[in-house]
Amino acid sequence: MDLALITVAFVLSLGTSSFAYNYTFPEGFLFGTATSAYQVEGAWIEGGKGENIWDRLTHERPDLILDQSNGDVACDSYHKYKEDVAMCVELGVQFYRFSISWPRIYPHGFSYNLNKEGLLYYSKLVDELLANGIIPVATIYHWDIPQALQDLGGWTNPLVVNHFVEYARVLFDNLGDRIKYWITINEPSQICQEGYGNMDKAPALNLSGIADYLCGHNLLKAHAAVYHLYNDTYRESQNGTVGFTINGVWYEGNSTYDDDAAERMMQMYFGWWAHPIFSSQGDYPPVMKTFVARKSAAQGYRRSRLPEFTPEEIEYIKGTADFMGLNFYTARKAKGAEYDGLEVSYSNDHQVESWIDRDWPMTIAPWFGINPLGFRKHLNWIKERYNSPDIYITENGYPDAGEIDDFDRIDYYREHLKAMLDAIYEDNVNVRGYTAWSLMDNFEWMFGYAHRFGLYYVDLTDPQRPRTPKRSALYYKEIVRTRQLTYEKLK
Ligand code: NOJ
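Structure for Myrosinase 1, as requested:
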């Protein structure tokens, strides 16, 4: 090519990001895939495991689950974990993110009866991953608190902090020699707001505006305590890294007034968790403190329903993450709203109404409209507010009814990976890795097995639970192999 042509090509490349970085992933960027214990393991009452809140909810209230199913057997990963690892090998991913079931380790949550069989299961899974050159990434809590602790209030009981620390300690002691990536807690909003505030998750307490805030308060302290435990006792010898994963929904307004509401929603949905840990000031977002306090006072409360951290607690929680885990799926439009002044609820506190824009394509899931640009915007929002932390995308994926020729899922992955690459190259956001949710179809909480996110199809009518790669598995495999987004080719 002569110089003139090269110049023309270069000038053209400035106009569109597609030429600027050629959709190539940065050096050292990690690819992975993920599952969680309750969603895939099954063996709910095997190997010494205790009952958790999802066992209880699905057994007592099957009517709350779209197809009345449960995780009793799920994908049977408790017995088929070697097949799961073989699928990761086939995909060529660098890491596998799984979660550890608390009641498999401590069946009742209390630290007096360690279930060695449960520990052995995870030890074998980790060994199998390492033997195949795959990095284990372990989530310590992915929504399955032991029922015995729930009977004492679960995450609303301040003593949960001590129980969580003892549970984490036994994991660091026994698995920390081999696990170098830890995520303390997955998606606090879903745990507290959806599980304690309403009935979208177990334990379905439905005490919005009270139990959700108590849950969050203890959860943040429990996370920080585990981070400090790692720092003080294990970091030097084990040399790992500890993060915290938050679900991001990109809220956006249409007018200046609505932009205020959208920002408030970002703060009260995402900042609720990110501000105490990742901001330089620490503590809950100021706007959240103001709004909950104001509404509480108007309702006759003597103090805000949002508990207060002491100055020491603010310092103790601040900075307790080596990286931020971001789960991203969807976006919403937002505008300010005036809800009934007397009702005690999280939505009455934030005073924001939100909805899915009619122009965004929908998925099978009612909560899920597609907006890849929202992903890029959310990443920028994080960068600006929290001093550009290291981010791992710990989940991103697409639900359908279980098609093998899942071209819509491929579109979703391609568009979101492109939005992420734009954020990395054009906006300098520090994204270090990406996780496709999920390795295989699994128990999608209140939607049972009706909504499927897998790269692999799982036949749930067959006791062997055979797994079959979907088109998207082949697509993801190609991206991981070439380390390039085959954007035009596969469109
Ligand atoms: C986030 C949760 O962590 C995961 O368990 C769930 O299956 C996905 N979102 C999809 O809803």
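The two ends are 28 Å apart (CA to CA).
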